[in-house]
């Protein structure tokens, strides 16, 4: 059985046109690979993505406007590269949303990909209960808790990096508690995504 400190993970973050994973579109995506608690920054992937329609209200959150995505590839142009990066790894994100919208985009292209997903906020909730404490598990709270220097947020690549750093520290704690990979999948996620 693969140990949590030797498993392959793909930390993802997306910026999107809205918060409906079935209807909204990705406008930026970042993937940072990890092997156990080791972050492999040299193999990261980042791309802006040209949506069919960009909603004005989403721009105030991620700052990605029509000009920024006008020459970006459509999702279908990067889908096979993403599939290659993600397959045979466990997806890690801050919330379920990133994995769900990614699932939706692959489904629209009828690309089959089985994804185990871990939500670091769920992992933190488990760790907090284990340690008998209650605290805020939003991204800002986690960045502060793990003493990370917040320089820039709401960029897919920056947020994927923060997520990777938080997960790195969580993995060390989980290993100390003797958590197995199967247990980690249960702790960090309640559902398995099948994409086609």
Strand elements, count: 7
Enter the CATH topology name.
Answer: Nucleotidyltransferase, domain 5
Give the end-to-end Cα distance, rounded to a whole number of Å: 27 Å
- CATH H-level homologous superfamily name: Ribonuclease H-like superfamily/Ribonuclease H
Number of domains: 1
Radius of gyration: 16 Å
Mean pLDDT: 90
Going by helix content, strand content and strand pairing, the class is alpha/beta
Determine the number of helices (DSSP H or I, runs of at least 4 residues): 8
Per CATH, the architecture is: 2-Layer Sandwich
Q: How much β-strand is present in the residues? A: 15-25%
Global outline = globular
Q: Could you characterize the architecture of this molecule?
A:
Helices cover 42% and strands 20% of the residues. It is built from eight helices and seven strands; from the N terminus they run E-E-E-E-H-H-H-E-H-E-H-H-H-H-E. Strands 1, 2, 3, 4, 5, 6 and 7 form a seven-stranded mixed sheet that branches. Helix 4 links the parallel strand 5 (90-93) and strand 6. The model is unreliable at 191-196 (pLDDT under 50). Keywords: Exonuclease, Hydrolase, Nuclease. This is DNA polymerase III, epsilon subunit.
